[in-house]
Amino acid sequence: MTGTTLQLIRWLTGQKPEAVWDVKKHTQKRTLSQNAYYWQLVGKIADVKRLPKSKVHNMMLRDYGQAQGIDGRLVTVTVPDTDKAFEEAIRSETFHIKPTSQVKLGTKNQMFRTYILLKGSHEMTTEEMSVLVDGAVQEAQNLEIETLTPAELEAIRNAEYRANRAG
């Protein structure tokens, strides 16, 4: 069930007392328009820089994305501190990680770097996606790629939200 605090309390009072419930705060997911425009910019940036889209996407997530948390804690992973591992991580389409400055010595004198797990854009809220889109817009403008105006960006952010509330 989705509702306000008062609506949920009223609904819960009618449920069996021994039932166990999970409750989480509702957040507005990123809009499809935001997502489409973001990927359009990623494609243009990739073309100009002559890089794979996956690499540009990971670069954007590293610079403008959000860390993935579980129960309010950062999720980290250690990866061999090699150029090959770095390149695999920056090109990945299935996971998104950001390197930290923390490096540890492992077995056989192998160095390992700690990376922070990042949210994929499909998991972002409207606000988080706005930060990512704004970052992509800035990167595109630095490359002299034409972008939407601030008013047009606000329109794609809010259009679907208003439509969903009305319908």
List the helices and strands and how they pair.
Blueprint: H1 5-13, H2 32-49, H3 53-64, E1 69-70, E2 73-74, E3 76-80, H4 83-91, E4 97-105, E5 111-117, H5 126-142, H6 150-166
Antiparallel strand pairs: 1-2, 3-5, 4-5
Helix pairs in contact: 2-3, 2-5, 3-5
Walk me through the structure:
Strand 4 (97-105) and strand 5 form a beta hairpin. The protein contains six helices and five strands. The strands form two sheets. Strands 3-5-4 form a three-stranded antiparallel sheet. A two-stranded antiparallel ribbon has the order 1-2. The protein is flat, with a radius of gyration of 20 Å. The protein has 167 residues and is of the alpha+beta class. It has helices spanning 5-13, 32-49, 53-64, 83-91, 126-142, 150-166, and strands spanning 69-70, 73-74, 76-80, 97-105, 111-117. It has two domains: 26-66 and 124-167, no CATH class; 67-118.
Task: Summarize the entry for a quick read.
This protein has 167 residues and is of the alpha+beta class. It has helices at 5-13, 32-49, 53-64, 83-91, 126-142, 150-166; strands at 69-70, 73-74, 76-80, 97-105, 111-117.
Main features:
167 residues; 6 helices; 3-stranded antiparallel beta sheet; alpha+beta; 2 domains
- The end-to-end distance, rounded to whole angstroms, is 17 Å
How many strands, what sense, and barrel or not for the largest sheet? 3 strands, antiparallel
Task: Please tally the β strands and state the result.
Answer: 5
In helices, the fraction of residues equals 40-55%
Q: Which structural category do the helix and sheet elements fall into? A: alpha+beta
Strand order, largest beta sheet: 3-5-4
Number of domains: 2
Report the uncertain regions. 161-167
SSE sequence, one letter per element: HHHEEEHEEHH
Shape: flat
Mean pLDDT: 86
Number of helices: 6
| Percentage of residues in DSSP E strands | 5-15%
Radius of gyration: 20 Å
